[in-house]
Amino acid sequence: MGVEGRDKAKALDAGAQVISGQLGKTVQRLRKAYNLSLSELSEQSGVAKSIISQIERNETNPTLATIWRLAQALDVSIERVLQAAEDEPFLEKSTRADTPILVSDDGKCRLAIIGWIKTVEWLQWYDFSADPGGALESDAHQRGSVECLSVLEGELEVEVAGVTDRAGAGETLRYRCDRGHVIRNVSEKPAHATMVCILKAAVME
Fold first, then answer.
1. 58: left (phi over 0), alpha (psi -120 to 50) or beta
2. Cα 96 from Cα 106, distance rounded (Å)
3. Domain-by-domain residue ranges, the chain?
């Protein structure tokens, strides 16, 4: 192999390293957005826990089949998983297919993850909708976290540590979410809201 060949091989290796590093960061952020452990993602994707851990630490170059399984489990396109941060445009569009949706245990509440994946470790935001009687029960987030629920349609009730309050269209409820909390649709009509969760927020007095 000549000098040109060696240089080309180095460039290819460097490019692969960049893509692999971005993949690891994306997988980890998406996994945390879903509050999935390595074991849970392994179970859902069929990819070994040790392999996922190596991918997140940028210690391996996964096959296309492995990337596809992870993308399916994390409900995103392969293109989005592989997209390098340096190549992302300033104006970015997410399609319905790229928007993960979480469903409550009772099947009546839906959370569309519309926040930017790069901020998921400290800022998350969602499009929330609930059928009449629907309830979304959530475990405590990390200490100091605050949630803001802005109602667009209908009426929603929030219960945190035994304290409840209601908000209608045009109103916002802000509350500590570092303890168990429940959001309920207390009206006879569907409810729609925007939810923003600020992690690592200053602890309120």
1. left
2. 23
3. 3-87, 99-198
Tokens of 47: 């990819």
Q: Give the separation between CA 5 and CA 201, rounded to whole angstroms.
A: 52
CB burial string 126-159: b at 16+ within 10 A, e below: bbbbbbeebbbebeebeeebbbbbbbeebbbbbb
Residue with tokens 């980890």: 28
Edge to edge, the sheet with strand 101-103 lists: 101-103, 109-113, 123-130, 191-198, 146-153, 172-176
| CATH architecture of residue range(s) 99-198 | Sandwich (2.60)
Single pTM value for the model: 0.60
State the Cα–Cα distance between residues 201 and 144, nearest whole angstrom: 5
How many beta carbons lie within 10 A of that of residue 71, not counting itself? 20
**C-beta separation of 81 from 70 below 8 A:** yes
Residue 32 corresponds to which tokens in the numbers above? 């945390």
Domain 3-87 has CATH 1.20.950.20: no
Residue 196 amino acid letter: V
Q: What is the pLDDT of residues 169-182, one digit of tens each?
A: 999 999 999 999 99
